[in-house]
Specification:
Elements (H helix, E strand, L loop, with lengths): L16 E2 L11 H17 L5 E9 L2 H17 L9 E4 L1 H6 L10 E9 L2 H14 L10 E7 L2 E7 L8 E4 L11 H5 L16 E5 L8 E5 L5 E7 L2 E5 L1
């Protein structure tokens, strides 16, 4: 049951990367990294047409940071069971200049190229919807949930309003999954109004003309506050975001 159209929210406004969650290594979230990397392998197997391999350039400002990143990438590849052919390579000096000629190598003298995958996030959502329907499921868009059905103290379905119809529709289910993204608290409040709401994080993407940021590679650097920042070229634009 989708409140608006499929992939109309966060699912079509991502960084377009199918990545294994390398950013979570710095917080020691090993299980999350392993799960993300293995889910990525699953996408590669099931939908290779929606996973374009790219080399992402991780930039380091000094030798110590370079060594720290190298250890992190090695651990990332181990947890994600990355194939030998897809493993990283180290670049500096002339090799780094050849990879990214416009880079200020005084500021970022070292780099690590490691494998990630680009996708069309909205198409990936639609592929999941179509696969579910092919297996006997039913997917309804413009069908917001207005209430929960209960049976013996447990959630046993939802009440929806399909495409603005006058009357709501009761849909019973053995299992109800709340996958409403940032609207998860709104659905939870239908059952437990006193539950604490989620603490949301905002991802921001800035779109630049390719002529304003002339890079060849997808690049990743870490901002002063510790957050990773991606710069990803796509046709005539480059989008930059966290």
């Amino acid at each position: 049951m989708e409140a608006k159209d499929f992939a109309s929210g966060t699912s079509s406004r991502s960084t377009k990367l199918i990545h294994g969650g390398i950013r979570y290594l710095q917080n020691g979230e090993w299980a999350l990294v392993r799960e993300g990397a293995r889910e990525r392998q699953r996408v590669l197997k099931l939908a290779p047409h929606l996973a374009e391999p790219i080399d992402l350039l991780l930039l380091a400002p000094n030798w110590y940071t370079f060594l720290k990143y190298w250890i992190g990438v090695r651990l990332y590849e181990f947890l994600g069971q990355v194939r030998r052919d897809d493993r990283h390579r180290l670049v500096w000096g002339k090799a780094l200049e050849a990879v990214e000629p416009s880079l200020d190598r005084n500021r970022y003298p070292y780099g690590i190229l490691y494998r990630e995958y680009l996708t069309d996030d909205a198409r990936l959502v639609l592929a999941n919807v179509r696969a579910g329907c092919a297996l006997g499921g039913v997917a309804l868009n413009y069908s917001p949930v207005e209430g929960l059905l209960e049976d013996a103290g447990r959630v046993a379905g939802v009440r929806i309003r399909h495409r603005g119809s006058e009357n709501s529709i009761a849909v019973k289910a053995a299992c109800v999954v709340n996958a409403a993204g940032p609207w998860v608290p709104d659905v939870l409040a239908m059952d437990e109004p006193a539950l604490k709401s989620l603490v949301l994080s905002k991802g921001v993407h800035v779109v630049l003309a390719r002529s304003d940021l002339m890079i060849n590679q997808c690049c990743l650097l870490v901002a002063d506050d510790g957050r990773p920042v991606f710069a990803i070229p796509a046709d005539e634009i480059v989008y930059v975001g966290t």
